[in-house]
Amino acid sequence: MSRPNRASALLALPMSLALVAAPPALADEERLEAELRALFAGQGRLEIGDVSGALLRDRVTAEALRFDSDEGERLLIDRYRVSGDYDRPDEVLVEGVRLEEGLTEMLLIGIERIVLGEPSRAVLPLGDEEAMASMRLGSLAVDGLVVELASALVAELSGEPMGEGRLSVARIRGEGISREAIDWLEIADVAGTGQDLDELGSGAFTLGRLRLEGLSGLDEEDAEELSLLELNDLAVEAERMVGSLARLRIDGDFTDGEGGVRVDELRLDLARMIELAPEEERTRLRMASNVLTDGSGALHLDAAFRGDWQPSEAHGVLRSDSELTLHDALRLALDIELPLVLPEDAEPAELFADSELLEAATLLGGEVTLILSDRGLFGRLATLGAALEGISEAQYLEQARTQAQGFGMMFGPQVQAFLIGLVELMEGSASELELAISLPAESNLETFTGDPLALPDRLSLRVETR
User: Which residues form the signal peptide (predicted)?
Assistant: First the structure.
């Protein structure tokens, strides 16, 4: 009996593998087609050009899908591919998605590519709420999303009608996605134009990047929590707003004892916004703009609000270091240091999110320092005030000083010192006002909010001008 040569054996091996793999591959093809047809059943007519499986890889592909809905829309999908074990796929790839109006073929939603990493199912059960609740995605990647805002379908998805316009998103990436939570989600290179962009009115906007991290509580009303939000390179040119924002960062995860908000390079073109405002409002708006921007019409703002918790054996210290700068107007700095005892079983991370917890905490004294630095705003306020009253600036300042002294007689020398400090900023004899407050021990916030007029007697205030 002759022995088979090496070449014949090598040729026979892949054929044998193909025969072994053929039955499950065929089963996966049938399952994919059946699930796709079930997804659209009773809503219209679905056509599938071809369903095939790979011989040497766990992969099944449906191509050239066309669904004509009873409502008149048409959905086209170039390719739907499931890779890996069909019951626990490694990846689902969807390419060439186009949703259009059946008669006009106008694009409603278009997507170049969707990649679902490690989905819990091969086909999303969109019509089954219970099944969707258990759906999980290890990762998500979407490229080339385009949405026509004026369509009835988009209005149905968003829950309210939207004006004419278009939204495009170059990339969406995410991980750990379920109905309850999202580990992180990033949206990049967004552009939109429309006739009614919510509160902005008609116009256009672009967004470089939006990133969310640690989003939880999505399945419960008023239970949403977000660890981090970061927004970069936003530009808006619309009826009610013309401006840009370089960066917004919100750190809402206080489990590490710190968090806060940062705003970098917020710029508003007040001059353009005033031109777009109703004519009867423009004079008042121009006066406000001139005071804030020294006549340039361009408002420029930076801000940072930071908080942290320093624990100790008997109590902890809540600290806040915040500042706000209106360029060519003013700078405001606020430093807070409050030693306090939290209610029993309360966690420090809850302190920043629950105002009632802060109200219930026992203050062990503390210091609050407010520094107000003039960058031109107070001098312009004096000029505007004098013009509105039809008197000279010297007369206006003298009148303001007299009023400050009168309030001092009513509320005490500390309040008088603060108000006179504001007058000194307006007349230019000082450029900075500092207010230092020392809180009494064994108190709480209700001690101060219950009777605001008695605050000067309960607090130790120090006022300095420089």
Answer: 1-27
